[in-house]
Structure formats: C-alpha cells, structure tokens
Amino acid sequence: MSFLHLAIVLPFIVALLIPLFYRWTKQVHTGWLVLPIPVILFIYFLTFIPKTMDGATIVSMPWIPRLGINFTVVVDGLSLLFALLITGIGSLVTFYSIYYLGKKKERLSNFYTFLFIFMTAMLGVVLSDNLIVLYLFWELTSISSFLLIGYWYHRERSRYGARKSMLITVFGGLMMLGGFILLHIMSDSFSIRAIIRDADVISNNSLFIPAMILVLLGAFTKSAQVPFHIWLPDAMEAPTPVSAYLHSATMVKAGIYIVARFTPLFASSGVWFWTVSLVGITTLFWGSLNATKKNDLKAILAYSTISQLGLIMALLGVGAASLHFDTLSDDIYVMAIVAAVFHLFNHATFKGSLFMMVGIVDHETGTRDIRRLGGLMRIMPITATIAFIGTFAMAGIPPFNGFLSKEMFFESMVNITHLQLFDASTWGVLLPVVAWVASVFTFVYSMIIFFKTFTGKVKPYLLPKKPHEAPFGLLLPPIILSVFVVGIGLFPNLIAEPILEPAVRAIVPGLSTDFSIHISLWHGFTPALLMTFGVVAVGIVLFLTHKYWKPWITTRVPKALRIGKTYDNGMYYLEQGSYRMTMFIMTGWLRTYLNYMLSAFILMMASVMIFTQALDFNFSSMTKVTVVDFVLAAVILVTLVGIVFSKSRITSIILLGAMGYTISIFFVISRAPDLALTQLIIETISVVLYLLVFYHLPQFSNIEEKPKWLSMKTFLSIGVGVIITLVSLSAYNTTFYDSISKYYVDNAYVEAAGRNIVNVILVDFRGFDTMFETAVLSIAAIGIYAMIKLRLTKRGENDENE
Questions:
Q1: pLDDT class for 593, splitting at 50, 70, 90?
Q2: Cβ-count burial of 232 within 10 angstroms (0-12 exposed, 13-18 middle, 19+ buried)?
Q3: Cα dihedral across residues 730, 735, 736, 737: positive or negative
Q4: Which residues, in sequence order, are CB contacts of 798 under 8 Å at separation 6+?
Q5: Could you read off the pLDDT of 80-106 as tens digits, one per residue?
Q6: Three-state SS for 584?
Q7: For tag attachment on the chain, is the N or C end more exposed, with fewer CB atoms within 10 Å?
Q8: C-alpha dihedral over 331, 337, 338, 342, to 10 degrees?
C-alpha cells in the first residue's frame, strides 16, 4: 500500500480507534486529538500541486485483479481540487466543532467517528479510478452522512432528515451502479481512464444513453438537483459543523464531481448537454425562489446551496459544447467549465463561512428565526463582518470571489445562444433568461440573511439567550474562509494556474498546450456586467418589498410542485401497505410460514424444470430396487402415516425418530457411511430436543386439527414430494454446466495442502462463504445476548421499583 492509499484510509483508521481511546481521554476534547489528521492530509495534498500542473499521478494496488477491480488512485487537477476542499474544509470544521460541541453534553466519540468515516469516503470517491471502488466509497458517503445527519437521534426531525437523505441518495447510488455495469459491458474495463479513452467507440453503443441516464441519476440525487433536492433542507437538522462540511464543500459536491469526471465520455451526446443544462438551470431557479420564502437561517442556506449547485451543474452542461470543436483557442465554451470549477471553489469558501456564521448566531442567541433576530451588528460585529462578506459574495457583488465566477456564469449563458449545435441557438435563449431571474432571487435571499439578522432593532424579548460575540475558537474558521473570499476576489490568478487550469484540463482533455486562465476583477462593460446591474437594481426593489410578495409565492405554489409532500405521502402509503401485508402474512403460526415457503418452492422449481426442459429421465444407469428397499420404504410409509394421524405428541416424536433412523439405513446400504452417521446424529439430537421442550409446548388440544384429505396441506405435501422426486430422477440425465468436482479433486491438495476435500472446500475455496456465515451467526449471537441483557436489566429495574 502506497502512502497515497494510506492517506485515503487514514481517517477511517482513526475513526476505528476513536471509540477505543475515547474512554481514557474524556478530560480532553476529542477534537483536539483528531485535528492533526485532516491538517496533515491537507498539507500532504498541497505537495501535489506542482505534479498536477505537469500531469496526473497514478498509483495502483491490486485488489481483485481477476475481475479487473483494483484500488487505483489518480491525482489530477480535478481530484486534487476536491481533495484539498475535503481536507482543508475538514480541518476548519474539526476545529470549529471543538468549540461548538461541548465535551460534557455531546457524544463526541460518535461524532468524530462518523465524521472521519465520511472524510475517507469522500477522498475515496474523488481519487478512485476504478468504478467499483468508487461506488463502494460512494455508498459509504451515504451511510456516514446518514449517521451524521441523525447525530441528534433523540430529535424526530433529525431521524426524519437522516432517513430521507439515505433513501434518496442510496436510490441514486444503485442507479449509478447500473450505469457503471453498462459501461463495463461496453468497454470491458472498470477503469475510468480506460473508458474515457474508448469514448469514440462507446458512444456508438446502444447502451450509451441508458448508461448516461443512470450515472446522471446518481449524480443528481447526491447533488440535490430537482426533483431530488428535497432531502437537503431536512438534512439541516444535523449539527452546524456537519452542515458546513457536508452541504457546502463535500457530499453535495460529489454529484458535481461525477458529472465533471464523466464529461469527456458523455459530452458528445446532445442528451447530456440538454439534460445537465436544463436540470441545473431549473435547480438554480427553484432553489433560489424557495430560499426567499424561509424564515430559518439554515433553511435559507439549504435552498441557497441547492440553487448554487444548480448553477455549477448548468455550467458543466453548457461547457460540454467545448468538446465538439477541434480547436479551442477562442475558449468561448471552455469558459463555462472554468466558471464551474472556479465557482465550485468559491462556493465552498463563502458557503462554509455562512454555515459557520449561522451556527454562531444559533449558538449565541438560541434561535435561527429571522423574525426574532435583528440588530446583532452592534452586539456581534465580527460575526456580522463574516456574514457581510459571505452574503455579498453569494449575491455576486464585487470585490468578492463570488462576483467573478458569477460574471463568468452570465457570460457563458450568453455565449450559448450563439452555439450552432443541439438547437442551442433557438432554445438556448431560455438559459440566460432563467439564469438572470434566478440570480435576482439569489441577491434577494442573500440580503435577507444579512440585513434581517444584523440590522434593525434588537429584540431581546424574543431571544432564548442573551446575545454576545462568539469566542475566538468559533470565529477563527469562518474568518479564514472569509479571507479566501476577499483574497481570491482581489487576486483571483493566485489559484488560476496552480489549481483551476489542471482541473479544467482534466475535464476537457483536448485543450491545447497554450491554454491558460486569466481572471480580472474589471473586465469592461460586457453583457454580463449589464446583467449584474440589472440583478442588483431589481433585487433591491424585491428585497424592500419582500414582505408583500413573499405570502403570494408561499401560498400559490401548486400542490403538484410540492415534491416534499409527494415524498411524505409516498412513504406513508408505502408504510401502510407494508404494515397491512405484514399483518396478512405474519400470522404468528410457523405452519403458515412453512406453507408460504413450500408453495414458493413448488412454483419456482416447477417453472425452472418446465422452461429449461430439465424433465429428461433415463433409468438405465439407476441401481436396481431390492426387497430390502421395499421393506424400508414400507416402514417409512407406515411411520409417516402414523405421524399424521397420531393424537399423542410423544408418539409423533418417537415415530419421527424411527423414520429418520430408517432413512439412515438406506445410506448404509448405498455405501454412504458419512451420510448415515450424519443422519443418525441429526435424528438423535432432534428427538432429544423435542423431548427437552416437550413440557413447554402448548396444549395439543388447543391446536388440534382433524386431518382432511382435501386440504391445502395435502396438496402441498404431494406437490413437494412430486417435485423432489422429479428433480432427483431428472438430475441423472440433465446437466447445464460441466461438473466442478474434478477441479476440487485435482486442486484440493495442490492449492490448499489439504487431503480432506470437504474441509478444503469450506475453509479455502469457499472461505468467504464460511466467513460470512460465521459473521451472520456472530451477529445473531450478539442480538440474542443483547435481548437477554435488556430483559435482565428491565427485570432488575422492575424489582427495584417494587
């Protein structure tokens, strides 16, 4: 394992160790102990900047080479940008959480365990080159984010938000897995780099579009694109450090990463261009409109995150046009990719600071409701400054970094109307119009966050706590991010060549060697700048009249567009249907469950035998039936009839044992002593167990049923007997596959150094099966132990109460 692989799994290793040393370090805040990990990783990834400017770093580690699944890590401009965000914002969030979460009130071991598992998952997603490895890390992000969102599990809304995010993102992950499998079928490779190299061949395959749609479903669900955006606002029930990390810089950006990474493969299709562009621009508009309706600061930031993610997604869709030209010297459409990458970086800085600012306001005032807040600028001047920088950057006001990427966004939307491709010159005019309207609402909700919270009159009678400025530990992380917001706004070219250019080259591999990025704060009177003037002018008017039009958009949204309500209704009917079906099936009688299983067995086996033409009998090679066989069969038949009609439980137990011992004689006659011995042991144990529980069985008279010849049990019994007989007879002459037994005979000793073939198969050839069976038994044992422990604890509490 290389150090690069170790860098990915290091947070996970630390997460496993946290519960072990937490017990002996309770006097120290756990955050101080784990803070060095993301800081070290951030510094380590900084060393890759010169390397990514020259090309990608590729390190491979074999995992399952026979299936083409290897843990291959690729550090190029795109993955490095995300790795720096994951570790850099992760370091600030970890430091912030030390002052936000008290060591006496919170379960810190759980929090940092979940947080560092998530960090490993995100690093694995952005650095993996293998599709299957990427998918494993992808689902790990869903699981760890579920745990983080539901961290305060005693709150019903936290559990609701965690479950909602889990269901939606896991659904998207499964769809994306289907897309990955289709890509493997088309390319015969799991390597992303190899698949992209074969893009020209793959694009002509009939599975190309289905694979694209499935991959996009995974990206859209994770990045909260309409209509899958509904999980993100409810995820705000998580602690603020979680929101600042997951929903500004990491988890929601995972879908953005997938779209950017697969752009070289799918951008050749007009379906990709229009799907990504329209979904992105729709999400931008819908998120910004809904943000203006909310009163909770975190809810406003949640919908603002949705809108900003839509902006980046729309830019990636528009930038796909750049791959359709042989020469990209004019950089007209590549500028959309540059704007996407630049805004991705900018959004992480100003949105991370805003989430932390909201956490400070909530922490120091006890509320996030803007109807209760106001006038905090005089009481919390540093927090107000952070909010001013963050909100004005999000609104696209100079001289902050958000202004620069927003101008590039407007310019890209205008340029797309001149594109003679995919009918963009006609329908493409909708993109800049919707983008401008959405940006107006973006300006409005940004002003709402700042002015409603920090200007006006203080309302101490509405605040649960007396407001005061936050401690330095809470202020330092958002101050650092605010410095980036201002610094990159004034000096954007500091990151242009080392960070943005390699990332853009990773998304658009065909760029010329002369390609360079130069960003200016002043770029003249352009259509983009005029659009900004219009946004500010109209935005100010809408902000000043907000209280008049807000009720209208709050109540006039059609019910058909309330996707969150649709989700709730769907979950309600699904739960009700599951409950009714469960109550119908789960009667409490084992005999009923056995009837279900036997019915399914008969239907499946009969269907398989009929449709596979397996009914082929050949009696020439069978052993002749002797008198002894008839006698033993007669004994078994007599005992069977006796069991069915017996009214005494002890008689039934004895007859059942006699039948089992008689069957073992068949094995002896057929020269199968191992089977005979096994049968004898099983029958003996069964009889003993029956006798041991005999006293605890219910009264026979309470469940007595008179045998009926024409009953369901009769048909099931005959059906199972007939099916087993047909399978046994046809197995002699029906073979679908070559026998594998010879392989075990030839390789048991050579490969596993064992002479007992059965043991070798169980331990070596089927080692994973045995391991998982052992794991299942271990889990069952733990569950039984837990139930016994809880029962004893409850009994002890009852005794104390008495």
A1: confident
A2: buried
A3: positive
A4: none
A5: 999 999 999 999 999 999 999 988 888
A6: helix
A7: C
A8: 170
**Residue 488 near residue 349 (C-beta atoms within 8 A):** yes
Q: What are phi and psi of 73, to 5 degrees?
A: -110, 130
Partners of 60 in the β-ladder: 72
pLDDT given at position 699: 62
Amino acid at 458: V
Q: For residues 435 and 283, what is the distance between their CA atoms, to the nearest angstrom?
A: 10
Helix (H) or strand (E) holding 61: strand 57-64
Per the CB < 8 A criterion, the answer to whether 382 and 390 are in contact is no
Residues 6+ apart with CB under 8 A from 103: 26, 29, 30
Per DSSP, 128 falls in state B
Q: How far apart are CA 327 and CA 660, in angstroms?
A: 81
Question: In this structure, which amino acid lies at residue 517?
Answer: I
293, 447 in Cβ contact below 8 A? no
Q: What token pair was written down for 761?
A: 């198969």
Yes or no: say if 354 and 299 are a contact pair by the CB < 8 Å rule. no
3-class SS letters over 416-481: HCCCCCCCHHHHCCHHHHHHHHHHHHHHHHHHHHHHHHHCCCCCHHHCCCCCCCCCHHHHHHHHHH
- Phi/psi region, residue 456 (left: phi>0; alpha: psi -120 to 50; beta: rest), is left
Most confident of the following: 66-80, 507-521, 681-695: 66-80
CA-nearest of 657, 667, 665 to 631 is: 665
Q: How far is it, in rounded angstroms, from Cα 415 to Cα 205?
A: 31
Structure tokens at 796: 């002890």
SS3 at position 307: helix
Q: What share of the chain is helix, strand, coil (3-state, %, to 5)?
A: 75, 0, 25
| Sign of torsion over alpha carbons 152, 153, 155, 158 | positive
> Which residues have C-beta within 8 Å of that of residue 56, sequence separation ≥ 6?
74, 75, 76, 506
DSSP state of 685: H
Rounded to whole angstroms, what are the CA distances from 614 to 335, 339, 611, 623, 727? Answer: 63, 62, 8, 21, 8
Residue 179 pLDDT exceeds 60: yes
Backbone angles phi, psi at 61, to 5 degrees: -135, 120
Of 685, 63, 169, the residue nearest 677 (C-alpha):
685
Q: Across all residues in the chain, what is the average pLDDT?
A: 88
Q: What is the pLDDT of residues 4-57, one digit of tens each?
A: 999 999 999 999 999 888 777 878 899 999 999 999 999 999 999 999 998 888
Contact between 657 and 687 under an 8 Å Cβ cutoff? The reply is: yes
Instruction: In whole angstroms, give the CA distance from residue 747 to residue 765.
Output: 10
- State the Cα–Cα distance between residues 431 and 423, nearest whole angstrom: 13
Average pLDDT for 186-201 = 93
Q: Could you tell me which residues come within 8 angstroms of residue 369 by beta carbon, excluding any fewer than 6 positions away? A: 295, 296, 297
For residue 687, what pLDDT band results from cuts at 50, 70 and 90?
confident
**Residue 253 reports pLDDT greater than 90:** yes
Q: Determine the 3-state secondary structure of 626 from DSSP.
A: coil
Please count the CA atoms within 13 angstroms of the CA of 334 that sit on its side-chain side. Answer: 24
Distance of CA 428 to the CA centre of its chain: 33
Q: State the CB neighbour count (10 A cutoff) for residue 470.
A: 23
Q: Which residues pair with 72 in a beta bridge?
A: 60
Q: Phi, psi (5° rounding) for residue 369?
A: -80, 115
Q: What is the spatial distance between Cα 504 and Cα 506, in angstroms, rounded to a whole number?
A: 5
For 634-662, write each residue's pLDDT tens digit: 999 999 888 888 878 788 888 988 998 99
Whether 32 contacts 92, CB under 8 Å: no
pLDDT band at 755 (very low <50, low <70, confident <90, very high): confident
Q: Does residue 413 contact residue 373 with C-beta atoms inside 8 Å? A: no
Q: Which two tokens stand for residue 291?
A: 């943000």
Which residues share a beta bridge with 59?
73
Q: Which two tokens stand for residue 539?
A: 């935005």
